[in-house]
Amino acid sequence: MAQPTDDKQLPPPQRRGRAGEVGGDATLAARTAFTRAGFADPTLVLRWREIAGEHTARLARPVKLSDSGVLTLKAEPAAALFLQHETRALCARINSYLGRDAVTRLRFVQGPLAPVPEPPPTPPRPIEPSSADPVRRWKGPEKLGEALLNLARRRRG
């Protein structure tokens, strides 16, 4: 077996086990989990609070969407009966949000729901510093002055 003597002819060896982007693996895992549960489009799960409304979202969450259009919701035991009466209106809201007749029927599975963390509070609106604020008398570089002014707008008290 003759081996070439010139190293410039050989391509560099492939490295294995190289770390990839974390987000790429997370996206693939999430897509697989959503698809396995029947949600080809994860919008229904991710925007459930907007679609169903605040009150309904606290009582039930989507678990599975079958090919025949049956959406399975996990609901608090006492709320399942209440939500059963709201089935027609809830199906109409879901279908109008998705823009197609994706859900024809609702099926309820009773069980306790894990608490959903509240969204982070919106940051307070910036307050314009008064004319007596020392940042207004800054005589240095312009970019630093802009940064100081932005900091003064954000601070409280």
Instruction: Tell me which CATH architecture of the largest domain applies here.
Output: 2-Layer Sandwich
- Give the distance, in angstroms, between the N- and C-terminal Cα atoms: 81 Å
What is the number of E strands? 3
Residue fraction in strands: 5-15%
Q: Structural class, from secondary structure content?
A: alpha+beta
> Which ranges are low-confidence, i.e. pLDDT below 50, for 5 or more consecutive residues?
none
- Describe the sheet with the most strands: 3 strands, mixed
Instruction: Summarize the helix and strand pattern as letters.
Output: HHHHEEHHEH
Give the % helix.
25-40%
How do the strands line up in the largest sheet?
1-2-3
Number of domain units: 2
Q: Compute the gyration radius: what is it? A: 28 Å
CATH fold-level name of the largest domain:
GMP Synthetase, Chain A, domain 3
- Using the alpha-carbon principal axes, give the shape: flat
Broad CATH class of the largest domain = Alpha Beta
Mean pLDDT: 83
- Please count the helical segments: 7
Describe the structure.
With 157 residues, this protein is an alpha+beta fold. It folds into two domains: 28-110, GMP Synthetase, Chain A, domain 3, CATH 3.30.300; 124-157, no CATH class. The protein has seven helices and three strands. A three-stranded mixed β-sheet has the order 1-2-3. β1 (60-65) and β2 form a beta hairpin. The protein is flat, with a radius of gyration of 28 Å. It starts with 21 loop residues before the first helix and ends with a helix. The relative contact order is 0.10.
